[in-house]
Amino acid sequence: MLVGVPKEIKDNEFRVGLVPSTVRELKAGGHAIIVQAGAGAGAGIADSDYQAAGAEIVEGADHIFERAEMIVKVKEPLSGERRKLKRGQTLFTYLHLAPDRAQTEELIASGVTAIAYETVTDPRGTLPLLTPMSEVAGRMAPHVGAYWLEKPHGGRGVLLGGVTGVAPADVLILGAGVVGSNAALIAVGMGADVTMVARSPESLRHVSTQFGSRVHTAISTRDAVETLCRRADLVIGSVLIPGASAPKLITRETVRAMKSGSVIVDVSIDQGGCAETSRPTSHSQPTYVVDDVVHYCVTNMPGAVAHTSTFALNNATLPFVLALAGKGVRRALSEDPHLCNGLNIHEGRVTCRAVADALSLPYTAPDAALKL
After folding, report:
1. Residues 249, 278, 216, CA angle at the centre, nearest 5°?
2. Domain ranges of the chain
3. How far is CA 84 from CA 61, 71, 81, 91, 241, in A?
4. Superfamily of domain 2-119+306-371
5. For position 196, what pLDDT does the model report?
6. Which residues, other chains included, contact 147 with Cβ-Cβ below 8 Å and sequence gap of 6+?
7. How many CA atoms lie within 13 A of 116 on its CB side?
8. 3-state secondary structure 150-185
């Protein structure tokens, strides 16, 4: 199979779809790999590193989209990239389609087979390709929040860890999954007063086992979220329904009642965000203010630490990339139901029920779509 790796063009996105060690594994399997010149530069990977692993370096993304049978990216293709996709190609990347009708409709029209990292599962029911970036985003969130809490950046002027005689910042984390637990780990380490809210008592028991009295816990109800948001200096949104739009836990009225200069870091923004006031932002323009509350809603947070993120992501995607290239896409999907859960669109049909439901589009079961 001919595998292509274009350079990411999303605002300040420095990650890259494959690293040289993965290229070498593909090459050993008899596959050809083409990499756009400079694709790995932002992650500290030189073109010569790819060439040494057996890849061909090509100038410009057009060569990738014209020639490759499978295109491996990190972030969703932007509109200009989507117009270059065609039937018979496979796209393997993060997609986050539920809140993005334009992308979904263009991928449907292209006829491409689109496999989303974020809905691939494993036998334990977890999301192995989302987990590494969730770890990164979770660990970044308290640092980001601490920065925007500083007065020169529009925040309340609160130090996350406080000092002797002055209380630390009150940090509220919505969601107790991978993002939430990693955010708690860093926030506790920075000395903040941390509260975590989740729907599942079992998840909160796990949090209590991990952190003990260092993290307060509460069951997620409307009353709890409203009360705790009003008290918080920093709110980290980390709720996730796999493949679906994030639930809007923070209402506009709640934002209006929050402290002036408090900060919301909405890590759920890839799936639409968990605050009614959230909208996607970029690393070049990361924040905006609603009712004196700073909103940080960058859709590719891990891109800021591209070296760490790229290698963490490749560690997870490697077996799936090898399976898709080695077996062929149809066979790989048919033989692995967990990889097949990643199939979001196939030759004009939506094959992820959560996406179809979110956008009110017809749904075709993956196995049925692959047979058509």
Report:
1. 40
2. 2-119+306-371, 131-299
3. 10, 11, 5, 12, 30
4. NAD(P)-binding Rossmann-like Domain (3.40.50.720)
5. 98
6. 153
7. 26
8. CHHHCCCCCCCCCECCECCCEEEEECCCHHHHHHHH
- For domain 131-299, the question of CATH label 3.50.50.60 is answered with no
Dihedral sign of CA atoms 125, 131, 135, 140 in order = negative
Q: Which residue has the tokens 């949104």?
A: 237
Enumerate the active-site residues: 96, 270
* Angle, CA 298 vertex, CA 295 and CA 300 arms, to 5°: 160
Task: Read off the pLDDT of residues 56-111 as tens digits, 9 standing for 90 and up.
Answer: 999 999 999 999 999 999 999 999 999 999 999 999 999 999 999 999 999 999 99
CA dihedral 349, 103, 337, 198 (to 10 degrees): -130
2-119+306-371 and 131-299, same CATH topology: yes
The DSSP symbol for 191 reads T
Cβ proximity of 338 and 16 under 8 Å: no
Token couple for 293: 């509350």
What is the distance between the alpha carbons of residues 73 and 188, in angstroms, rounded to a whole number?
A: 34
Q: Is the dihedral of CA 45, 71, 105, 86 positive or negative?
A: positive
* Tens-place pLDDT, residues 295-323: 999 999 999 999 999 999 999 999 999 99
pLDDT of residue 125: 87
Q: SS3 string of 31-64?
A: CEEEEECCCCHHHCCCHHHHHHHCCEEECCHHHH
Q: What helix, strand, coil percent values describe the chain, rounded to 5?
A: 45, 20, 40
Rounded CA gap, 14 and 37, in Å?
13
Under 8 Å between Cβ of 258 and 225: no
pTM of the model: 0.92
Q: Give the CA diameter of the chain.
A: 68
Number of Cβ atoms within 10 Å of the Cβ of 205 = 12
Tokens linked to 304? 């800021």
- H-helix or E-strand spanning residue 347: none
Phi, psi of 150 (to 5 degrees): -70, 140
Residue-averaged pLDDT of the chain: 97
| Residues near 331 by beta carbon (within 8 Å), at least 6 away in sequence | none
